[in-house]
Amino acid sequence: MRVSEITLEAVKHFCKEDYDDQDILISDVMIPAGKAFICSRTGLADFELDDYEDITIALLVIVSEMYDNRRLTVDTDRLNPLVRQILDLHDNNLLGGVRNED
Questions:
Q1: Distance of CA 19 to CAs 12, 22, 25, 59, 67, Å?
Q2: Contacts of 63 (CB under 8 A, 6+ apart)
Q3: In this predicted model, what pLDDT tens digit does every residue of 18-44 receive, in sequence order?
Q4: What is the pTM of this model?
Q5: Predicted pLDDT at 73
Q6: In whole angstroms, how far apart are CA 42 and each of 46, 49, 66, 94, 98?
């Protein structure tokens, strides 16, 4: 299966989600966000993702992580690691501060 072939039903099956109340969240937010994350992380364009079959499983895992961990913090004082990675990809804060890497 290629990234472009991933369907809402495939993602719901992977996430073990049987309810329809999360369809818009998954299809309109999480799948595109997962693709954008992969493109930002790899430097690949969206149309290039289909060239690598292993990226399909990465997208499914990323969307599953987004679905399972929909909180900003995973502990009382730690930022969700996936959220941190996404924000780090787009960090334009050039103030020279030291980043807390836990």
A1: 9, 7, 12, 21, 13
A2: 11, 14, 15, 26, 30, 31, 34
A3: 878 888 888 999 999 999 999 988 889
A4: 0.74
A5: 66
A6: 10, 10, 19, 22, 25
Contact 30, 86 (CB under 8 A): no
Beta-ladder partners of 25: none
> ∠83-77-69 over CA atoms, to 5°?
40
- pLDDT(83) > 80: no
Contact of 26 with 8, CB cutoff 8 Å = yes
Block residue for tokens 């079959």: 53
Domain residue limits, the chain: 3-70
Q: What is the pLDDT of residues 45-54, one digit of tens each?
A: 999 999 998 8
